Fold this sequence. Notes:
63% helix
Amino acid sequence: xxxxxxxxxGMLIAFMVFLNGTLNAYLDGFVSGFLIHIVGILSxxxxxLLRQETWxxxxxxxxxxxVGGLFGVLLILFNSYCFVQIGATMTLTLGLFGQxxxxxxxxxxxxxxxxxxxxxPKKNNWILDCFHGHxxxxxxxxxxxxxxxxxxxxxxxxxxxxxxxQ
Length: 166
């Protein structure tokens, strides 16, 4: 159930980046980011009203947890900007690669109170494979790039990239 839900989340994020990036092509980045967040606030407000939720905020809530909202705004702005510049695929794959690297650092050092999970050769190879795929992601199938013949399977670019030297 969780894996299927995660796949659906990934598809929704891809669609969201497409819509936000397209909006950003019509409007200034900050205006589009503002509109996107207004729509989000109204949507959540409607859901809370329909569920008849009470709006109680625990006063002992650490203020540093509210910084997540700032990260959300930055994420929307950067995604929208990158979508217009480099397209959806590169925006999403490079974003996922950044998440993977940061998560590996958090796990390895046990940052933010997380359980420490040291890196191992299997994780290192996986990260290198993903990096290799991201570097070749703009290869778009079969063509010459940088003196190399590049073939990329569309369904799994981070693992199924093969390089053939001429």
